[in-house]
Amino acid sequence: MYVAVKGGERAIDNAHALLAEARRGDPGVAELTVAQIRAQLHLAVTRVMAEGSLHDPDLAALAIKQARGDLIEAIFLIRAYRTTLPRLGASQPIDTAAMRLMRRISATFKDVPGGQMLGPTFDYTHRLLDFRLAADGPGAVPPSDTPRAMAAAGPVPHVAALLERDDLIEGAPRDDTPPPDLTRMPMELPATRALRLQALARGDEGFLLSLAYSTQRGYGRTHAFVGELRIGWVDVAMEIPELGLAVTIGEVEVTECETVNQFLGSRGAPPRFTRGYGLTFGQTERKAIAMSLVDRALRWKELGEDGTGAPAQDEEFVLMHADNVQATGFLEHIKLPHYVDFQSELELLRRLRAETAAEPEAAE
Amino acid sequence: MSLLARARPARLAALFPAPLPAHDLLRAPEIGSVMVQGRIGGTGAPFNLGEMTVTRCSLRIASGAVGHAYVQGRDRDHALRAALIDALMQTEAAEVLRVRCLAPLARDEAARRQVAAEKAAATKVEFFTMVRGEDR
Question: GO MF annotations for this entry (chain A) (predicted)?
Fold first, then answer.
């Protein structure tokens, strides 16, 4: 238990001043601007948006600067800011089939209608340090006048839709049930798939990565193929109360991953592939792939599979430990003063020792 | 209205510079959030993905026309200008505004999207599967 302490104001003020100095670093080196972070550390920015659960690249970049690059601290700052905002409403569900694609790949079909575009990927790089990036001054890195090609006209259909057309995969029929919102009411278990996906979308990338990896290694095996991974921009439309009609109010960058998993069939229903789904803000494909694997693993009951007791199949375990702001809050609070708490344990220990020291004599 | 919502605030300010036409604020620019929803499997039941920042504003201009704006981000001037243009589009100024503001915004956006799409298209890949030696 944490009991409040007081005092130490001057030390705390000085520690915060020291923090500001350490954040700034060597004054002989130019200060980073928020615009630089936003433009050049885009993947850090999008991770903070995804797990901070707020799409605003300027705020995410500011949080990264303030947190000295500690992304979980930055996510914490975004979550705290988010709570100060009035909720103006909910969007209509985004249409990811109409995504303006910057990347779209399929591990299941090489000739997928609409084609595969690698986009700005680390895949197929050699993972060798590029010392040209360490060279100072302009001109050290060649200008990026990247090639262009004729772009496909119109939206590119989902890979799952192609399999669905041939009845080879379970459907995802449209349903307009209003989703539960874990930012408005406490998480209730068992959770619906919609609630689980909200929790996973804002969950810690590292935690989901490890869980997803555990399913690949056999702890709740789901045998996933990446049917499709797409990254791009989608419009966000909302019904405007003053107008009574839906209008596009912005656009967000998202990553979507859909896995194709092993079959489910029964008497009367031919076997079909099953699906796992991942959707995250920003360019966050490791997270989106992990999310779709964990989503699929959590569906074992709904799909009539055996519960093997694997961590990734344990809804309570996954959902109650996925949030890194909750986790870090509880973990890190144990470094704060616990003097009274500890004192009582110390006294208990001394009493126990005194009793055991007295006992042998009594037994003799 | 959606074009104004997605516009870059600085570009909108350049196309529709101060001094701004007289107006009464019905709702001063207010920063808030909108919960963005996705659909399970892209097409199924909705779920809450996360929020985005949005600024809204409502006002009335001298002619009596009322303008509303919901714009992405946290720029109050952006929301104010968008609401003003929304109101002015209901007056005889509409044609001038369409040419001076909305058309350039639409061109900017189309050009930005076209460049991004063409750069992505240049990374289009053709994969081939190889016949392995032992299969011959």
Answer: lyase activity
